[in-house]
Design a protein that fits this description.
This protein is mainly beta. It contains 3 helices and 10 strands; from the N terminus they run E-E-E-E-E-H-E-E-E-E-E-H-H. Strands 8-1-2-10-9 form a 5-stranded mixed beta sheet. Strands 3-6-7-5-4 form a 5-stranded mixed beta sheet.
């Protein structure tokens, strides 16, 4: 039985986050998108990736962080859910890609409860590597269609 899991890590606001590598379809340099009307501000628009229309989400804005001007380090990570009943493909814009780490499942710590002031529904856990904490994201929640397209929702804050 496999006890290790690999995560692609990326940087947002000088904090390292990770997503399950099995959900990563590809990594692309930032390129322009087709904007859509009446959408949350964190949805930048859509791209056509080999015939599939993919929404692009600025993860900084999704997490309530200040927007950052895109530069040569800005990348879009194309994620796909592993839910075969309700498949979803979404691109997330991040400041930069960091590394791929392999964590023992027992080494992933549960995120502490912060009450109602911080929404940690996206946080799967925390992993400690090289004396730094990496926030591991729950990809299924991050890509949930109902949450993603709710134009009336209050944006969560994962500001660190």
């Amino acid at each position: 039985m496999e006890h290790e899991q690999e995560y692609l890590t990326f940087v947002l606001n000088d904090q390292e986050f990770g997503v399950d590598i099995l959900c990563v379809q590809e990594i692309r340099v930032w390129s322009s998108v087709t904007p859509l009307p009446n959408k949350p501000s964190y949805i930048k628009g859509v791209i056509n990736l080999r015939g599939i229309i993919i929404p692009i989400v600025d993860l900084r804005q999704r997490f309530g962080l200040a927007p950052l001007e895109y530069n040569k380090k800005t990348v879009t990570i194309i994620l796909r859910t592993q839910n075969t009943r309700k498949p979803m493909v979404v691109g997330i814009v991040v400041d930069a890609v960091s590394e791929v780490y392999k964590f023992d499942k027992n080494a992933i710590r549960t995120a502490p409860e912060f009450g109602q002031h911080i929404d940690n529904c996206f946080v799967k856990g925390l992993a400690d590597i090289d004396s730094k904490l990496i926030i591991l994201l729950e990809t299924q929640t991050l890509l949930d269609q109902d949450e993603l397209y709710n134009v009336n929702q209050v944006q969560p804050s994962l500001a660190v």
